[in-house]
Amino acid sequence: MVEVIRVETKEQLDEAYRIRMNVFVEEQGVSADVEIDEHEDECVHVLAYYNGQPAGVGRVRALGEYAKLERICVLAEFRKYGIGKAIVAKLEQVGREQLGLPKAKLNGQTHAEPFYAKLGYETVSDVFMEEGIPHVTMVKKLA
Asked: In the structure, what pLDDT confidence band is assigned to residue 143 with cuts at 50, 70 and 90?
């Protein structure tokens, strides 16, 4: 069973950072000193559990009229259970209900572009490089 919660404690935030370090730094080669950035404190972080085990994370912050979805990742052993979709849904809910924003935006890795497209995101940029990984900007209206 998948459950996505808003991070409320230091322990939950530490767990979120651990998952991000595992996926982005160890697995994808992103530099550890850029993974945790100056936006951490202004973001709402979410943590996904699969059968009670921490499995994935994401964060969202207000950026103009957009809820900017960031740092969405799922640990490799949990990638077949719909956790990414649940994380995106929770981040969109926070953007719409808590931040009061009409649109969502994200910079997705190009390999994940079809995943986000299935969730209603539209690509609005050419491919660009971020930390040596090709990305595209995608947007969606929040109902």
From this structure: confident
